[in-house]
Structure formats: structure tokens, C-alpha cells
Design brief:
283 residues, alpha/beta, 7-stranded parallel β-sheet, two-stranded parallel sheet, 11 strands
């Protein structure tokens, strides 16, 4: 009987939270690092080594799977080469639903990989749920952690525009619900927090909670690209980040929705609460 839920990117911010919320007997963690999966989920968890770049890992991952949480690894931008073969394998395996973690405003940005993945799923006529999410609050505690902790700056080219940040814990709560119950096939949900903040306000809240000055530098796009490359970020990841922050710069990431509250029955986690909960990441 097909009763497994495959969680790709299981050791990441969103994936690990989803694994925590799903029943252990139904969830299957899929990621490159088996040792880290065992550390996070324990010896009794169903874990498989999985890599989009290695088709030989698909069969074990997809056996007895009815639903998939699909996460695009940040390092992958070539959708036809790395994602579409997995979608073909999933369709052949009889997967009944793909829940894809997309981005807010993707329908207006055809150059980002998320748009291409959505289109690839639609082209295969596979049942889907697209979760189009605002910027993760946890980007500040992971991707931008070092610059905030060591230099007290937020160095992203978002201009003065506002962003409807969302906590990954809210994304995971919605995702677990969509994966565990019926009624969400061929639906699109836009997941945001309850407020839109510019990065000056973000820096102000972080300054207040952390008790040390945090400054938003508001760099130009060329300056951002230069510094990302200087820090060793590869071109693919740098370009994707630049495109996403350019979307923000033009105001396309500022709209606020009520989908999180409607689907979970509670208000989204406020940004101040996120900073309080993750305080140790920056001090």
C-alpha cells in the first residue's frame, strides 16, 4: 500500500520541521547526508540517501510513496537536467500529489527556477499543491547569519521595499496539513506573515531584541553580487539570490495574505517572536 510521504531536503530548515510534524510511520526523509538525518530524526525514522543529480537514488526514495514534499536545493538552477527526471520518475511511480515549495510572486518571474518547476509539474498533468512563500525569516539566521553576527549588518539589495516575511515553522505547519489530509489537490496557496516590513524595520527589531546595533546597508545590486562572490558564493546561487532580491526591490514581495491563518487556525509567527526564539544565532 502506498502510504509514504517523501520529504526531500529533509535536513533543511523547512524539511526538518515537516518531519517533526508528520507521523513517523508515514514520513520518509530524503537527503544527501544520511548521518545528519539519523542525528535529526533518530534510528527508527525511515531515511533514504537521495540526490537529484543521481537518478539511481530515485527508486528507493519513491517506493510506496503517495505524496511528495518537493524542495529545490539552492544549488540547483538547471531544472531540465536535475528536477524534470525526478518528476518523470515520480509520475511513473504513481505519486498522487506533489507539494512544491515555491515563492511568492513566481507567476510574474519566469526566469527563476521555481517558475520552471511549477510549469514542469503542470506539463506532466500531475496533481499538485503549490506553496508560494514569502521570504523566510530563517534566511537571516542561516544565509545571512555571519554578517549579522560578526559585523552587525544586513547586506541585501532589497532597497526600501517591504517584505512579508514568514517563519519556516508556519510553512511546515501548512505543509504537514496539506500532505496529511485531502482537499488540497491542484490548489495554490500564498504563504506570508501577518505584516510586511522593510529591512530598516527588520534591523530595528533585531537591534532591540538582541541588545546590539544591527544596520541595514541597502547595497546596490552590483555591490551585492561582488560581495557574494568575494565570500565564495557560486555564480548559480548568487544569481538566484540576486533575482529574488530584485523581485523584492520592485515591491513584488510585500503583499500579505491570510492563507496561513486560514489553513492552520492561528496567526503567523511575528518577526519579533522569531528573533527572540533564534537569538542565539546572532549573539
Amino acid at each position: 500500500m502506498k502510504n509514504k510521504i517523501l520529504v526531500t531536503g529533509a535536513t533543511g530548515n523547512v524539511g526538518s520541521e515537516i518531519m517533526r510534524l508528520l507521523p513517523i510511520e508515514n514520513a520518509r526523509a530524503a537527503d544527501i547526508n544520511m548521518e545528519r538525518m539519523r542525528t535529526l530524526f533518530g534510528a527508527d525514522a525511515d531515511c533514504v540517501t537521495f540526490d537529484f543529480a543521481r537518478p539511481e537514488t530515485y527508486t528507493a526514495a519513491l517506493t510506496d510513496v503517495s505524496r511528495i514534499f518537493l524542495l529545490r536545493p539552492p544549488s540547483i538552477s538547471d531544472v531540465p537536467k536535475y528536477i524534470e527526471p525526478f518528476l518523470d520518475a515520480a509520475k511513473s511511480a504513481g505519486v498522487e500529489l506533489i507539494v512544491f515549495l515555491s515563492i511568492q510572486g513566481v507567476e510574474n518571474n519566469r526566469f527563476v527556477p521555481h517558475y520552471k518547476i511549477e510549469q514542469a509539474i503542470l506539463a506532466r498533468d500531475m496533481p499538485y499543491t503549490f506553496l508560494r512563500c514569502g521570504f523566510f525569516m530563517q534566511n537571516l539566521s542561516t544565509t545571512h547569519r555571519a554578517e549579522i553576527r560578526e559585523r552587525g549588518v544586513i547586506d541585501v539589495p532589497a532597497g526600501k521595499s517591504k517584505t512579508s516575511f514568514i517563519d519556516v515553522r508556519d510553512i511546515a505547519a501548512v505543509t504537514a496539513k496539506v500532505l496529511a489530509e485531502d482537499g488540497h489537490r491542484n490548489r495554490i496557496y500564498t504563504l506570508t506573515g501577518s505584516d510586511a516590513l522593510d529591512y530598516f524595520a527588520v534591523a530595528g527589531i533585531m537591534t532591540d531584541v538582541l541588545g546590539k546595533p544591527i544596520r541595514y546597508t541597502n547595497p546596490s545590486i552590483p555591490s551585492f553580487v561582488y560581495h557574494q562572490r568575494q565570500q565564495g558564493r557560486d555564480w548559480g546561487m548568487t544569481l538566484v539570490m540576486t533575482m529574488l532580491y530584485t523581485i523584492t526591490r520592485f515591491g513584488n514581495a510585500s503583499s500579505v495574505t491570510t492563507d496561513v491563518a486560514r489553513l492552520t487556525g492561528r496567526t503567523p509567527i511575528p518577526f519579533r517572536q522569531f528573533v527572540t526564539d533564534y537569538r542565539e544565532a546572532w549573539v
